[in-house]
Amino acid sequence: MFFTEPRQHFFRPFNSKYREQVVECLRELYNRLYSSMADYSRAVSKENVLECFQDAITRAPLINDNEEDEGEPAGLAVRSERDQANWVLNVLLEHGWLERQVDEATLQSSYGFSRVGRLFTQPMVETVSGRFRTRHRNTRNTRNALQSFLARGEVYDLLDAYEYSERIISDFSDVIAELDERKRQLVREVEARQIIQHATDEFFEFMEKRFMPDLAVRLSADSVEKYRDEIHGLIRKVKRRKNTFKANAERELRKLAPELITEPSVSVLMRILDGIEARTHNASDVMLPALRRALHSFTRRADIIIRQLSFTHSGKRSQLLSICQSLKTMDADAQQQRLSAASRCLAQLNLGLVDPGALKLHMGRSARAVNTSAEESVTADATIRRALFVEQALQTAFIVNNNTLRAYIIEALAKGHRIHSQNLPVRNAKELLMSAHAIEVGAAGNVSSEFQFCIRPTGQTVQTEYFERLDEFTIEVVETKAHD
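The chain above was modelled as a monomer; its predicted structure follows.
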């Protein structure tokens, strides 16, 4: 469980009106410990932490001064910044964000983040951080890690590729969410300020500092479409490696990443490879088009807003605004006279006819579909030739020829002129097939103009040795009327 001691009330420091100060203190301490400002030569003492918190409290505002938190000491807002910093330090220590370590030799205390506290503070720092991150590199990192695994066989490279492939999807989601947020922020600022210069500065600052270094590279040189086929080819090569290579990788993966084992019979190696392939496919076919649509929507919205503000602020060049200003200075009679004259001009009807000779109806042409696919010639070995022979034999085994069918019926009628369908002789499989198609002899065409076959149903259903239910027919040879 997550909410256990000492994290039972982990998020309580953010429930008071001092929550912005707590967040700023965490950011400042994180930068002091893990950024380029960190001094790894000495431990961070309580005095260092309090100095760091005092600087953060000076910049952070209070939120909702009318609320009083139950864990807040009375009169904290009017106390000094050092007292407030001391209170923030105690709260973070109590609820598991920070931890205190004591050197047994010198009995000196040092302060730092707990593991969970550092993980939760990192996104707080990144939300306000302006540092540059090459997030578009994750596709190339996936490709490089797969190449390294294929060359050296170290499963750590495969796990790195699996992690990089997951970041591809999350990076796309982050960028799409950022574009949507910037679009909403641009609309809010324009509605509040109506300042065209601020709107254009915000837009071009984003295009220069965010689009060009990251998004433009993501959509062109380092597009996921560029490396998708190469990544899929590397995955196919891994799957075609020898069984000993795959068995060793499987054993190492089950040892290093037991959380990936869902069932004992399911291969962890194949699951990772299929997961990487599916993620790159989704990133290329789903997330990349979504990013392009989000970017197009953002630029289109910015263009519309800038055009509207430009039109609104160009009063000297707008005839409509100048006319409205002139009408505003006139009295009611003059305004009515001007508007009546404008209405008479607008009420005129101009009718024009189209020259029939200029109209031409073109017949639509359907494009011819040309099949340009080429099939690779395959040498037919003994197995393929055997399969073709069996297929041809099965196709010809059930073919019923009209001449053969007539000969079979004539032979059955050799002792008379009429026979019932269930009494047809069946001595082999060929004759069984002929008996099943016996009624077709009536429509198969007659080579003689004197006699013909006549098929009459008796209306009865019989059972034979070969058929469970069979409609009974009589087959006889009759003379044609023309001959009579």
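The two ends are 103 Å apart (CA to CA).
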